[in-house]
């Protein structure tokens, strides 16, 4: 407790940095994406959970939907907190629970993106390897899904449990944490950033390899690779584009922002203010991912697309065309 009391003033300078942007602009933006994401993810969940988990890809996509829905649940709390309603009790709930759930869901979803990329790579590029058949097993996919949730909960839930200090008069989330909680917060933040960059590099490698393999396949069978190849590349790199747009900016500023919250970090009040505004702006981009994931499902997952079109008979009749074997493998990229 003495350690906390000795550093409250310093942290207050780096946490009490609200602005017009965070109090007026962000609540409107979060409300808009909350409504859109509720509709899109509701539709995605309605489709995915009416089909059996017959492939590892479907297992991973179902878990991504769960992660997105959990992440979406935190948005209303964030909006109310930005608007300044609910007082210290609401801030306490946000710091201890909904913020932890937000990051838990985000990094769990990111990890499932890497599993999808890896599974697609071995199925398409390394289809004859033993690893490919291993990753296609439903039992393996379910075990990896449980392992992902377990590891992420291990690193994230202590941030909630260790936010157990008495509520200060001048509130900040960091002051709620015990000494161990502050250290665990830093460890988990750096762990999550590390997970992100590993996933990013893995996805770049996997989808670049898949794109090259697809191009060579079309050239080999002497098909018109110009139109089909462009469509395939759009499907492949749409996931990378969304991933980069939503997550890269936040993770570039995450490390300096986390360092600014350390005691005696030496950051001025002005630098803390700038880092906080940039962090909140880029965090909004990560929240936007919940709206974009269902669009990715449609373009990259044939099962999702077909089930959606089945609910629209006229569109389904117009688009019912035979496809080549290569096309089928690409449609589930």
From TrEMBL:
Molecular function terms from GO: G protein-coupled purinergic nucleotide receptor activity
Transmembrane segments: 28-49, 56-77, 97-118, 139-157, 194-215, 236-252
InterPro entries: GPCR_Rhodpsn (IPR000276), GPCR_Rhodpsn_7TM (IPR017452)
Name this polypeptide is given: Purinergic receptor P2Y14
Family: Belongs to the G-protein coupled receptor 1 family.
Transmembrane listed as a keyword: yes
Compartments in which it is found: Cell membrane
Coiled coil, from the record: none
Keywords: Cell membrane, G-protein coupled receptor, Membrane, Receptor, Transducer, Transmembrane, Transmembrane helix
Membrane topology qualifier: Multi-pass membrane protein
GO annotations of cellular component type: plasma membrane
Annotated ranges, domain G-protein coupled receptors family 1 profile: 40-297
The UniProt record lists the keyword Transmembrane helix: yes
């Amino acid at each position: 407790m003495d350690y906390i009391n000795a550093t409250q003033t310093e942290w207050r300078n780096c946490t009490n940095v609200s602005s017009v942007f965070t109090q007026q602009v962000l609540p409107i933006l979060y409300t808009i994406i909350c409504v859109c994401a509720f509709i899109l993810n509701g539709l995605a969940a309605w489709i995915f959970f009416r089909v059996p988990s017959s492939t590892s890809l479907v297992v991973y996509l179902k878990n991504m939907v769960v992660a997105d829905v959990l992440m979406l649940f935190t948005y209303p709390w964030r909006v109310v907190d930005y608007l300044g309603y609910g007082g210290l009790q609401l801030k306490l709930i946000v710091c201890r629970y909904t913020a932890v759930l937000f990051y838990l869901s985000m990094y769990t979803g990111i990890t499932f993106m890497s599993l999808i990329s890896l599974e697609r790579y071995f199925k398409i590029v390394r289809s004859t390897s033993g690893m490919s058949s291993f990753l296609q097993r439903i039992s393996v996919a379910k075990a990896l899904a449980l392992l992902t949730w377990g590891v992420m909960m291990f690193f994230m839930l202590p941030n909630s449990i260790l936010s157990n200090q008495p509520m200060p008069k001048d509130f900040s989330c960091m002051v709620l944490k015990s000494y161990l909680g502050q250290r665990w917060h830093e460890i988990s933040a750096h762990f999550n950033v590390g997970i992100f960059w590993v996933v990013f590099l893995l996805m770049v490698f996997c989808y670049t390899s898949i794109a090259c393999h697809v191009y060579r396949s079309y050239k080999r069978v002497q098909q018109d690779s110009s139109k089909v190849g462009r469509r395939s590349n759009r499907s492949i790199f749409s996931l990378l584009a969304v991933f980069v747009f939503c997550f890269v900016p936040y993770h570039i500023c995450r490390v300096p922002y986390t360092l600014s919250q350390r005691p005696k970090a030496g950051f001025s009040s002005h630098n803390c203010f700038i880092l906080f505004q940039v962090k909140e702006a880029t965090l909004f981009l990560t929240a936007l991912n919940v709206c974009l994931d269902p669009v990715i499902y449609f373009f990259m997952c044939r099962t999702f697309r077909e089930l959606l079109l089945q609910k629209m008979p006229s569109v389904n009749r117009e688009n019912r065309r035979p496809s080549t074997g290569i096309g089928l493998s690409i449609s589930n990229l």
